[in-house]
Specification:
Elements lengths: L2 H17 L10 E7 L9 E2 L2 E2 H11 L7 E5 L9 H11 L3 E8 L9 E5 L6 H18 L4 E6 L3 H5 L4 E8 L3 H8 L1 H16 L3
Parallel strand pairs: 1-4, 1-5, 5-8, 6-7
Antiparallel strand pairs: 2-3, 6-8
Bound molecules: zinc ion.
The site of zinc ion has 5 residues, from loops.
């Protein structure tokens, strides 16, 4: 080859390489911890044979993400007792993008009903947690007929001690007849799980 041909070839190679797109980055993995409250000897709120621990476990098991980048971790996979400290130790080891802790409420007033979210003001993740609760609130309003009581603040252990954004969802009042019907109904449980599934599937 002539020297000029070599130079031209060399230049062509250099130029073509400069147009090669860098390999797209792998999409970020989103880690979510779903914490089904209570378990084992801790029944949570009870009404006859109906228990909070069972309702939240049933709904937790229905939560699935359609986004392959979302990894769901559960604090408990069966009916076992876990202390709050064991739950937050697990959470802080994983350091997920979000913790959702599922509970069922009770009131001395059997007319009190509805679904509410709790976030803690006592953490640096308050703002982020509140934003997430707002979005979840919207999803639940779209997918369920439950009365929505909005977002409240409370210094709950799991919210304060998790080193990541965390939201407690009180799915309804077991002490209210109408809420109770929702909470134990398989189809209504599917709708509640769907609200959470849709939200986490859209996380990035
Ligand atoms: Zn509870």
């Amino acid at each position: 080859m002539k020297n000029t041909t070599k130079v031209v070839l060399f230049l062509i190679i250099i130029i073509s390489f400069s147009f090669v797109n860098p390999k797209p980055l792998e999409p970020k993995k989103i880690n979510i911890v779903i914490d089904a409250g209570h378990g084992g000897n801790d029944f949570g709120v009870t009404s006859n044979s109906i228990t909070e621990k069972q309702i939240v476990e049933q709904i937790t098991n229905k939560i699935k993400s359609s986004n392959s980048n979302v990894v769901i971790h559960l604090t408990r996979y069966n009916d076992t007792f876990l202390s709050l400290e064991e739950r937050t130790d697990f959470i802080n080891t994983i350091k997920p993008d979000l913790v959702l802790s599922l509970h069922v409420n009770a009131s001395l007033n059997n007319k009190t009903s509805g679904l509410e979210f709790y976030v803690a003001k006592e953490t640096e993740f308050f703002k982020k947690s509140n934003e997430i609760a707002e979005k979840l609130n919207k999803k639940f309003s779209e997918n369920t007929n439950l009365k929505m009581l909005g977002i409240k603040t409370g210094p709950f252990y799991i919210l304060k001690k998790s080193d990541v954004p965390a939201v407690i969802i009180e799915l309804g009042y077991l002490t209210n007849e109408n809420d109770k019907k929702y909470l134990i109904d398989d189809n209504e449980q599917n709708k509640m799980a769907k609200s959470i599934s849709e939200f986490i599937s859209a996380m990035e």
